[in-house]
Amino acid sequence: MGAEALPRNGDISPAAPPHPLILGLQPAALIDHVARVDCSLLDQVPGERGGSTTVAIQELQRILGKVKTHMLTSPDNASPMLTIAGGSVANTIRGLSANFGVSCGIIGAYGDDEEGRWFANNMGFSGVNISRLRRKKGSTGQCVCLVDALGNRTMRPCLSSAVKVQADELTKEDFKGSKWLVIRYGIFNIEVIQAAIQIAKQEGLYVSLDLASFEMIRNFRSRLVQLLESGDIDLCFANEDEAKELLRGEPNTDPEAPLEFLAKYCKWAVVTLGPNGCIAKHGKETVRVAAIGEAKATDATGAGDLFASGFLYGLVKGLSLEECCKIGTCSGGSVVRSLGGEVTPENRQWMYKQMQIKGLPVPDIRN
């Protein structure tokens, strides 16, 4: 799977509704460069494996330069490099629109460069309303996603010089008529996140929060706890590493402990456990759901983001907590079967088949 061709402006779907059901806030647009590489390259990359340590543009370019000599190939993936619109929120919103037919929009900014056009076109082509994306003079964020032979990914984003939407640029009109706001925790965007939450609550939206990464929680836990204690976060997603970091130093390290911690502040709390499925809590109900055993892991990029897509689809359809989790595992399992955070048409059909087997409602959209 090689780099995708840049869609023409005329290819962007004009039918996106003016008031999307679900909005995503991604202050800075991001382009992912996803590559399968051998482990020797990971030893040359600063920061911990598996995380999302930010890097300067010079370091990102250095890593990209080395990727060419460390690429892995496989019979079913002849071209091991993919360039695509990225970012956790963008992945979730695109998944909701393209895979589940949910009307979605995205709030943010992109630069007046090739990467910015690529981001806007990719999102628009997937049916996402991009009218809330601001085009600004400057550069668009980029991220190199290094995937090892086992499908584990190490991400190094470069956002230091990227244009982004500012808190004072958000308006009530951005949120009017929508029901959900999807955000990702990030200390560098905390002002715009807080401003978005405030307006969203004034407009009656639910707020879904992804915990971003274990490094973000480790370094900026206190601000996250303040955000949770505000009572404005209705739904929170954490993966197993983030959950452990949330309660670092506590004697109880079972996933249930951070789940209970999140559930104190959020109506819905979810901890994803990779190959062990997930656990979730809503009110007094707690469920544990197994992962999809048939999912072959090529690249873990976007697994949590697409799990969130499926879970949110279940919520807006009024399904039970267990059904929401099951759809989440089907959705998350579909994206790990190929490179990048976007589900391919083949894997989308695989997901629908898994949903049918489990007796879950398959979205009525044309693919």
TrEMBL record:
Residue ranges of domain Carbohydrate kinase PfkB in the record: 83-341
One of the Pfam families matching this protein, by short name: PfkB
Signal peptide limits: none
Superkingdom of source: Eukaryota
Keywords: Kinase, Transferase
Gene Ontology MF: a single term: kinase activity
UniProt xrefs under InterPro entries: Carb_kinase_PfkB-like (IPR052700), PfkB_dom (IPR011611), Ribokinase-like (IPR029056)
SUPFAM superfamilies, per database record: Ribokinase-like (SSF53613)
Family: Belongs to the carbohydrate kinase PfkB family.
PANTHER family: OS01G0105900 PROTEIN (PTHR43320:SF1), SUGAR KINASE (PTHR43320)
Protein name: Carbohydrate kinase PfkB domain-containing protein
